[in-house]
Amino acid sequence: MEQADVVNAFVEIARRDSSFPIPLMRLVVSVFAEKLGTTPEELGRIIGARDRELYGETTRYTGEE
């Protein structure tokens, strides 16, 4: 599993469904961060940076907090 593949997948998931439940997204990010040897916070920053790189801005969350 490559970090780039995980990051690109998360960007596309967020683009397709920006209301995905935050607790579930945090859980998934935490699991992948552990597998990739990083922290959820760092993986989140990397995902956000990739989103901006691909689309010019980060995807805004539209679900309930």
Order of helices and strands: HHH
The value of Rg in angstroms is 11 Å
Low-confidence stretches: none
Largest sheet: none
- The share of residues in extended strands comes to under 5%
What is the strand tally? 0
Please count the helical segments.
3
- Average pLDDT score: 89
Helical content stands at 55-70%
From the spread of the alpha carbons, the general shape counts as: globular
Assign the structural class, choosing from mainly alpha, mainly beta, alpha/beta, alpha+beta, or little secondary structure: mainly alpha
Q: How many structural domains does the protein architecture include?
A: 1
N- and C-termini, Cα separation = 30 Å
Short description:
This protein has 65 residues and is mainly α.
Essential attributes:
mainly alpha, globular, 65 residues, 3 helices, single chain
Task: Give a verbal description of the structure.
The longest helix has 16 residues, at about 40-55. This protein has one domain (about 5-55). About 70% of the residues lie in helices and about 0% in strands. The chain has about 60 residues and is an all-alpha fold.
